[in-house]
Amino acid sequence: MATATPELDPPAGSIMADRHLSVLLVDDHAVVREGYRRLLERHGDIEVVGEAEDAAGAHEAFCRLKPQIVVMDITLPGTTGIEAMRRMLAYDPSARVLIFSMHEEAIFAAHAIQAGAAGYLTKASAPDALVQAVHSIASGKKYVSADIAEKLALREFETRDAGELTEREFEVLQLLAQGRSIRDIAESMGLNPKTVANHQSTIKAKLGAETAIDLLKKSQQLVGLKAGRA
User: Fold this and answer.
1) Reduced to 3 states, what is the DSSP secondary structure of residue 15?
2) What is the mean pLDDT of residues 87-105?
3) CA–CA separation, 80 and 87 (whole Å)
């Protein structure tokens, strides 16, 4: 994980030798993206080369612009940031994605890292933490914000519930929590509706949900949608 110790020479896998670090911002709020852009570009070695508001736009911009770092929210219109990241990694396995999310539960960070994220930062972090995270990932390190790192270390998430779900099941869970239909989820994730239905049945069994309404309540509780979305 990242530390504050400066590197005298860029380590293996580092892109810090480049004069500018190119960054793609992905968030469905234009005002939020503008704030991130200003924060990052205050540092002369970071250039925001593009923005996107949803997963489809993020993938198109990633393939076209080939940014060195992607800063992306986990909750996006259409499909999740995790699925968007998976598509980027399929296109370019060397993609470096920093998930920047409102979700402060360790389970979100755990699933993001397992899916291939280079880092996870909460929006409750200090502004300079975003810059530190980008620099850390550019140097070839993983980065997890201090609040999340502590929770991961102490395992302060419920392993009997969402912790038992696979990465794909957890993504389906997030979309179910939004009240999305099986057909809608299948279309957004590029899956067969029967596959999504099977995931739903498995999730119900793992969470101990007996009805569709019970599953909706449990998924919203775990995903934290009742607290709002950013």
Assistant:
1) coil
2) 93
3) 11
Q: Domain-by-domain residue ranges, the chain?
A: 21-154, 162-227
Q: Residue 11 pLDDT more than 70? A: no
**CA-to-CA distance for 120 and 104, rounded, in angstroms?**
10
Sequence-ordered list of residues with C-beta below 8 angstroms from that of 161, at least 6 positions apart, any chain = 206, 207, 218, 222
Residue 162 to residue 32: CA distance in whole angstroms: 29
Closest alpha carbon to 119 in 103, 97, 149, 151: 97
CATH class name, domain 21-154 = alpha beta
pTM above 0.70, yes or no: no
Residue 207 vs residues 141, 160, 204, 218: alpha-carbon distances, Å: 34, 8, 5, 8
- Specify the fold of 162-227: Arc Repressor Mutant, subunit A (1.10.10)
